[in-house]
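Slack export, channel: ligand-projects

TW: morning all. Re-posting the request from yesterday since it got buried. We need the structure predicted with the small molecule present, not the apo form. The ligand is 2-acetamido-2-deoxy-beta-D-glucopyranose; the SMILES is in the block with the sequence. No rush, but it would help planning for next week.
GE: picking it up
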Amino acid sequence: MVAQLLGLAFLFLATSLVTSTTLGVKVNPNWEVVYRDTSVYGVVGKAVILECGTTLPDMYIWSFTKPGTDAIKAVVYNLGKGQRIQQLAETLGQLTVISNSAAVSIEKLPVAAHGLFTCQAFYDIEQEPKVFYYYVYLTVRVPVSKPYLLMSDVSPVEGSTMWMRCNLENGTGPIQYVWQHQTRIGNVSAFAQGNTSVINVTNINRNHTGWYRCVASNAVNSESSNRLWLDTIFGPDIPRIDVTPYSITERGYSALERETVSLLCQAQSNPASQYVWFYNNSQVYTGPQLTITKILRMHTGDYACLAQNTYLNTRSKKTISLTVYYPPDGSPSCSVEPALNHTSLRLLCSWPGGLPSPSLHWTGPLTQVGQDGADPVQQTNPLTNTAILLPPEDLTSNSSSFTCMGSHLALKQSTECSTRTYIPPAEPVCFAYVTNTKQYLMLSCSWDGGAPKALLWWEGPGGQGKGGEENSNILILRYGTARNGIPYTCHAKHPLLVQTKTCRLTLEAPVLLTQRRVVSVYEGSDVQLTCNLRANYLPVNEITWFNNQGVGVRDTSKYALLQTSAWANLTVRDTDETQDSGEYKCYTSNAVGVTEINVTLVVKRHPIPPNATLVSLMYNSRQRNEVELEWQVENEEAGGWTGFILQHIWVSERPGMRGSYNDSKEAAEERIGPPVWYSNIIQDPEVRIHTVGKLTPTVTYQFRITPVNHRTIGHPSTAKTPAEPRYNVYPAVIGAAIGGMLIAAFLTALLLVYIIRNRNNNPQLHDMLFGLQHSQSRENINFPEDEVVGGSDGGIEDISGSFGPIPTLALPRAASPLTTSPLSATASQAPPPGDDNEPVSVTITVNATGS
Ligand SMILES: *[C@@H]1O[C@H](CO)[C@@H](O)[C@H](O)[C@H]1NC(C)=O
Ligand SMILES: *[C@@H]1O[C@H](CO)[C@@H](O)[C@H](O)[C@H]1NC(C)=O
Ligand SMILES: *[C@@H]1O[C@H](CO)[C@@H](O)[C@H](O)[C@H]1NC(C)=O
Ligand SMILES: *[C@@H]1O[C@H](CO)[C@@H](O)[C@H](O)[C@H]1NC(C)=O
Ligand SMILES: *[C@@H]1O[C@H](CO)[C@@H](O)[C@H](O)[C@H]1NC(C)=O
Ligand SMILES: *[C@@H]1O[C@H](CO)[C@@H](O)[C@H](O)[C@H]1NC(C)=O
Ligand SMILES: *[C@@H]1O[C@H](CO)[C@@H](O)[C@H](O)[C@H]1NC(C)=O
Ligand SMILES: *[C@@H]1O[C@H](CO)[C@@H](O)[C@H](O)[C@H]1NC(C)=O
Ligand SMILES: *[C@@H]1O[C@H](CO)[C@@H](O)[C@H](O)[C@H]1NC(C)=O
Ligand SMILES: *[C@@H]1O[C@H](CO)[C@@H](O)[C@H](O)[C@H]1NC(C)=O
Ligand SMILES: *[C@@H]1O[C@H](CO)[C@@H](O)[C@H](O)[C@H]1NC(C)=O
Ligand SMILES: *[C@@H]1O[C@H](CO)[C@@H](O)[C@H](O)[C@H]1NC(C)=O
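GE: finished. pasting the full token output, ligand included:
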């Protein structure tokens, strides 16, 4: 019966497993079996209790159905006779039935226990039996084991894609995965989570670098993997360049010359960058930091930093431009120049060189800013200079100083320069001159000095003019085209003067003046004729003198010319009445005209000296060869004479004496020619007594005295014969005298022949005897104009012992009946015939010429 029941129960159980899913409990009075479902969760290795009703049934049967199978197999039962554990129970863990109940406890739960446990319980078997089926679904869960992390690439390149896998050996699902990321500095964050063990990471970046671990969790537990380092490979980024000292301009970085400049390059990269520096595209340094100590202006240029990632073989580059600033050399230079047609000034300040350009600033007596808005216009050329235009209101004082301050960022101190403005100290000067070739007339105007220079321009008649030039201006006119008498004006403008200055040239033909139109002079003297320009107003050609013959005068022995551009003095030397008297002409011309002036030279003779009278004359011895004379001058107080000529002439020979000296050739000649006056010249006007010697004792003479005045010879006095001496001693002397004279005459003749033949060899001797043909003597001895001119020009000398100063006396142009050949006179001296007995001392004066 029990077996039948059991079989029935099993049958029901089988069908209900397939069909019944409802857990509703319904007491079926009509003998229906009651089904109850519960779910129980257990963990592998742990314990679990499976309940079978709340009260102990009379009978029960625990069965087990393995998932995936239909078979229901008994595990333990108690049909009122104690529990009977089946062998199957051993595979389901340590299974025991809890006493006083039908509940089963399983310890050390195996995974195999997973399945449907069914407890068929029978109650009240004795009375109204009730059957309960308890279905207990036992789920055996496995805790997650420690996962381990796998990455497709632990060194991914930035931008690439990778996966991460969280590997897990055991663990009942569903399993949740969490990926944790720990940054280098320790921050931890959940990077990803989900129910898959693999995640893809696309577009990896450097922020993904760090520690990763995965945490796997299920209903039982949660386990975390070991951490794993992910190293993102990247870079290099575009480098960053830091320049110290930092100074940036619109053109890039800048540094001051001689500074130490450091360039630091940084480019993010993994692995770290390698750096190479380039200057103007040539490699100069390897390493992140390029340091230039004492940088120079030549180091200006482009600096490039190249960063390399050697792992990826990638590179990046950054270029900066670095300008080295340096100051200009020296100091600024200042100048001032005229502006606005010389009505205003421009101040220029220049300081070339330097980088960047220095800043220049003018200071000085400039119009105050804001004062009636007249602000000097400051024009700055950014390159090198600064110019200020000073308005005319500022140009008041003559001399002002302006200073230009120059500063440069590379210089600690500013430097400066100054310039001064002033009016030229003098007035404009005009003058004219002619080119050497007389082609052009130049009108020159100058106004020197001043800062800035003045502007000069010419205005002349007929459109003759010349535009402005600084400092000086020359108007060039063709010779002869200048206008006579019309002014040519030079205008001079200086910015510091409101008024224009002028200077004028009026071109006029020259006018010559002389001190005296008529110059009269005594013969023999030098005379100066003067000629000068009335004014020194125009370039005048040289002043020329023409003499009385109309011949241009040059410096000769006759004429002496002294001249400057303003005057010319002509000296006529040793004037002669006939040669030099006349009209002299002084001539000159200039570009405008010609002029000449006549000067009349009148050469006059000196007035005739007063008459003189011989008051006493007598032989002073019996030899009759010397006569002592004494004379008087009329009207002596009036003066007017300079000397005397004392003359004697042979009047007659004493009877009986003549034949004795016919042998003398000279004597022969003497007697053939007309009587001749022999002269003694007395230069001392005070002398009144004179002795004439060397007379021929046998001859009768006449004497006369003539006063002279320079070259004018007065009237001769009445000729007189000397008185006889007191003792007549002629006879004693005459015999000896005649013998001596014969010898003397002969010797004299020979000597004279010799001298005449050798006159060139011994000119002094010749001149002494015959007189100088052209005397250089300045003795102004003139013969009266009415005396006979011409004839012998021989000088007369008293060679009878008055040697010394007298022989130099000459009468250069002696042309007078008073003079004849002296030779015949001296040689023909003979004692007067009447004095034969007298002892005579005869002096042959020719001997003295040997000196
Ligand atoms: C996984 O389960 C098996 C069987 O239960 C066990 O042998 C093994 O040790 C478990 N592994 C880990 C990592 O727990
Ligand atoms: C890291 O953590 C600190 C504080 O723990 C936080 O202030 C900081 O923002 C975190 N950094 C990141 C990258 O999350
Ligand atoms: C995993 O989770 C998603 C939703 O997050 C769900 O749609 C999916 O069914 C789950 N898969 C498993 C195997 O649990
Ligand atoms: C990850 O990527 C692989 C192939 O690239 C793909 O087959 C897989 O489905 C992806 N998984 C996820 C979670 O996107
Ligand atoms: C990395 O993180 C920083 C700060 O958290 C962020 O500014 C930067 O954009 C991130 N870089 C990338 C490539 O995502
Ligand atoms: C470098 O280049 C700069 C700018 O192009 C140039 O001024 C400089 O002279 C160059 N320097 C050299 C040494 O070539
Ligand atoms: C400059 O000034 C002069 C005289 O003042 C004048 O003749 C000339 O025409 C001026 N020139 C100019 C360009 O103004
Ligand atoms: C202007 O000043 C300069 C220098 O001080 C001086 O030589 C000149 O004579 C002055 N001129 C006038 C017109 O005052
Ligand atoms: C030339 O003559 C002038 C008078 O015309 C006079 O003043 C000047 O002194 C003379 N010169 C000489 C050197 O005699
Ligand atoms: C100067 O004298 C010459 C003659 O010698 C004469 O022809 C001329 O007219 C005179 N000139 C003057 C200006 O008197
Ligand atoms: C000087 O003498 C001359 C000639 O004997 C005579 O004509 C003249 O009148 C005299 N003069 C005086 C002032 O006596
Ligand atoms: C000397 O000369 C005179 C005149 O000349 C002559 O008459 C006389 O005969 C001459 N006596 C002798 C001696 O020749």
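GE: first-pass observations. Residues 429-503 form a domain with the Immunoglobulin-like fold (CATH 2.60.40.10). The pocket of 2-acetamido-2-deoxy-beta-D-glucopyranose (ligand 4) is lined by residues 163, 196, 199-200 (CB under 6 Å).
TW: perfect, thank you
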